[in-house]
Design brief:
Elements lengths: L1 H20 L6 E8 L2 E8 L5 H17 L7 H8 L1 E3 L1 H16 L9 H6 L12 H8 L7 E4 L2 E4 L11 H15 L4 E5 L2 E5 L8 E7 L2 E11 L3 E7 L4 E4 L2 E4 L2 E2 L4 E2 L4 E8 L2 H14 L1 H9 L4 E7 L4 E4 L6 E2 L4 E3 L2
Helix pairs in contact: 2-7, 4-8, 7-8, 8-9
Bound molecules: adenosine monophosphate and magnesium ion.
Magnesium ion binds next to β10 and α8.
Amino acid sequence: MKQLLAFSLAVLLFLLAVGCTREPLPEPTDTVVAAMDTEMQLRLYGDTDHAAAKVLTEELLRLNDIFSPTKEDSVLYRLNRFLTVQDADLAALLRTADELCVRTDGALDVSLLPLSRLWGFIGTAYYIPSEEEILQTLTRCGADKYSLNGDHIQLHNDAALDFGALAKGYAADQCRAYLETIQMPALLSLGGNIQTVGTKPDGSAWLIGVQDPQQPDSTLLTLSVTGTKAVVTSGDYQRYFEHDGQHYCHIFDPSTGSPVQNELRSVTVVADSGALADGLSTALFVMGVEQAAAHWRASNDFEAILIDKNGAITVTAGLADSIAGCEFTVIER
Ligand code: AMP
Ligand code: MG
C-alpha cells in the first residue's frame, strides 16, 4: 500500500512538473503603421519586446519613401519628375510588373498614371474626359514608354509610372521574408492586402473575411487559410466616384483608357507571393469573369474569388473547401 501511495505521488509530481514547464502559447501584439496611403496592421505572435514590430515598421516606411507616387521626395516621384532613377526595389518590382503585364496580355500596366491623373484619381477633383483626351493620354502609356537596365529605370518624356496595383503586395513579401527568418507567426493587413505567416500558435487556421462589395463594412464570406499565404482583394468600391448614375472606379482598362466597366465588383487572389496576388487581383478585375477563369486554367500559382454585380460568387476549385458563409459556383480545371 505504501509503495502504491509513493508511486501515485511520484506520478502526480511528474505530471505537475510537466504541466508547469509547458511553454505558454505566444501572445499576439498589434501595431499600426501609416504608410502607402493606408493604415497597416501588424499582428505578431511572440514579439514580446516589440523588436520585430520595430523592424517591420521601419521597412514599411522605407518602402513608402520609394513607392509613394505623391510624396515629393519619394524615389518614384523623382522618377516621374526627372525621368530617370536608380533603385533596387523599384527595379525589382518593375521587373515583376513587366512579367505580369506580358502574362495578363497587358491587363496589368504600371504606366497608366497619366490616365489616373486625367480622370482625377490623383489630384483635386474627379473629371470625365472626352474621348479625344483619353486617346491622347493613352499615347503616353504602355510598356514601351520605359526601359529597365539593371537597377536603372528610364522613362520616355510624358510617361509616368504608378505601382499602386502591386506595391503593398511587394511590401507584404518583404515583411514575410523577415518574419520567416525569425520564425515568427503573423497576420498582416496592409490596407486590405492580407499576409499570413507560418502557423497560428494554437494550431487553428487563419480566418480571413472577404468584404461585401454592396456593403463594404460587412463580410460576405470567410476564407480559411493555413500556413503562409497572400490574400489580396481588388474592388470597385475601394475608390470610385459616381456621375449621372454611372460608377467610375480606380482600376483602368488599358485597352480603353477608362475605368473598368464589366460584370465584376471584386476579385480576391490567394497566392504564395504578395506581389503576384496583388498584381493578379488588379489584372483579373480588368479581365472579367470569363477571361479570369481562362487565366486560372492556364496557370498553377494562384486561386481566386470573383464577386459580380448581382452578388454572385465564383471561386476557383482550389478554394472550394476553404470558404464558409455563402453559396458559390466553382470554376473547374
Ligand atoms: P489595386 O487596388 O491593387 O487593384 O490597384 C489599383 C491601383 O493601381 C489604382 O489605384 C491605380 O493606381 C493603379 N492601376 C489602375 N489600373 C491599373 C492597371 N490596369 N494596371 C496597373 N495598375 C493600375
Ligand atoms: Mg493589386
